[in-house]
Amino acid sequence: MEGDGRAMKKDLNNEGYHLKESEIMAGTSDFRDGAFAFITEGTVALRELGNYGVANPIPDGESAITALVAGPGLKKIYGATSGLKSHLFYYDPSPAAEHVVDIGIVGENSECRSLMRDGDGRIYGVVNPGGRLFRYAPQGEFSVLWRSQTNEIEFLEISAGEDIAAAVLDPGTARIFGLTRHSSVLFEMDIEKQGLTRIREIEKAGNSNALAFDGRGAVFGSSRNGHFFRWEISSRSFEILDLQLPSPKGMEFLNYLDSAAVTSDGILFGGTTLGTVFRLDVRDLGLVGYGRPLADHRIRAVVPGKDGRIYGAAGSPGKNSHLFRLDPRTGEVKDLGIPMVHFPRNWICYDISALAAGPNGEIYIGESERVSHLMIYYPPAG
Fold first, then answer.
1. Which residues make Cβ contacts (< 8 Å) with residue 339, sequence separation at least 6?
2. DSSP assignment, residue 319?
């Protein structure tokens, strides 16, 4: 259902909920005790994808946010949309700015689900169909009005020749590793030489939606029956590991890596297409599964928070996405609920495709419907 066609987005008292806004904000409604589906722990905010009166907003039908990444020094959040046109944008959270700026169009009738940042702070993205690669250098952006007109999106002369299922960047070597969707080929893009090298075909790996760079020189992904694979970059050695993604028994053939993030201490946190959450120590390959945050499938995004916890988005496209939190110290996985705001409009974020962590502990949420916004979750203090 279209994002602007849901009755509750127009009127929170529709659909039989009959909740007063004062009850929701004060927490006096009985719905907070087990029956209230929306986030009540912490605070949620909404930012429209534009700055009315200064710059045109990203149009409906082009605003579904499908990728987010923190910029250099975490000073800005960069995002990409998918739809009739794919846009690259940034959000400047500084008090002098506090707005979203549309940098430019990176594709038509396209999607961008991979944004990456290199060691010099440049932003890279992959656009389907065709697996095209673009680059954007953030230096010189104006903080208050709009970006410097000298900053242009550069389309590199590298293409996978087909859709790219997942991509990850090694910031130390300025190389991008990716998986093709249909042929399930692991490849390497040399950005400086503008060349692409085919590494090998990996059975069923193209069904994955994520790869992970471990920060130590290896790329991890998933293959047939949810088996992990590892590509050692320097030695150019490949291995299918005797290790499987956590899965309900008998459903391993449907289970692939859906999202992944590696912490600074070498722990890979991820989610699967069957909706399970896990951690993998990339050094000793110790694997711990945490089950499902929701009964629904898909863990579409995970990101380490500044508070030492992992935040994720669970739920299949077109269904209600929930934000959840994993505490690695206790193993607790908590369903935080569906993001909802009342200002600057009554709005419920039903579909989440991307997350990013901000400099002050906030979590940025990419809404991905025909009419979409950048949502921000502020965890409770302490």
1. 38, 39, 44, 323, 348, 349, 352, 365, 375, 377
2. S
**Contact criterion met (CB below 8 Å) for 130 and 182:** no
Contact between 214 and 228 under an 8 Å Cβ cutoff? The reply is no
Tokens 């690669």 found at:
133
* DSSP 3-state of 4: helix
Q: Could you tell me which of 295, 302, 297, 296 has the C-alpha nearest to residue 278?
A: 302
CA 141 to chain centre: 24
pLDDT by residue (tens digit) across 258-304? 999 999 888 999 999 999 999 999 999 999 999 999 998 999 999 99
Which residues are registered as beta bridge partners of 324? 312, 335
- Among residues of the chain, what percentage have pLDDT more than 90? 73
Q: Is the dihedral of CA 310, 136, 213, 126 positive or negative?
A: positive
- Assess contact for 176 and 209: CB atoms under 8 A: no
Could you tell me which residues are beta bridge partners of residue 191? none
Contact 331, 290 (CB under 8 A): yes
Length of the chain: 382
Asked if residues 190 and 239 have their Cβ atoms less than 8 Å apart, the reply is no
Please report, to the nearest 10 degrees, the dihedral formed by the alpha carbons of residues 29, 31, 37, 42 taken in order. 40
CA-based max dimension of the chain: 62
Cα gap 311→319, rounded to integer Å: 19
Helix (H) or strand (E) holding 25: helix 21-26
Q: What is the pLDDT of residues 68-99, one digit of tens each?
A: 999 887 789 999 999 999 999 999 888 767 78
Q: 253: number of CA atoms within 13 Å, CB side?
A: 1
The DSSP code sequence of 52-120 is: TTTBPPPPTTS-EEEEEEE-GGGSSEEEEEEEEEEEEEEEE-STTT-EEEEEEEEEEEEEEEEEEE-TT
How far, CA to CA in Å, does 43 sit from each of 73, 303, 318, 338?
Answer: 24, 18, 24, 12
CA 207 to centroid of chain Cα atoms: 17
Residues 6 or more apart from 50 whose CB is under 8 A from it?
Answer: 56, 57, 58, 99, 100, 102
The token pair at 201 is 């075909």
Asked if 300 and 293 count as a contact pair (C-beta separation under 8 A), the reply is no
Beta bridge partners of 200: 186
pTM for the full model? Answer: 0.89
Residue for token digits 């929930």? 322
Both tokens assigned to 276: 């399970």
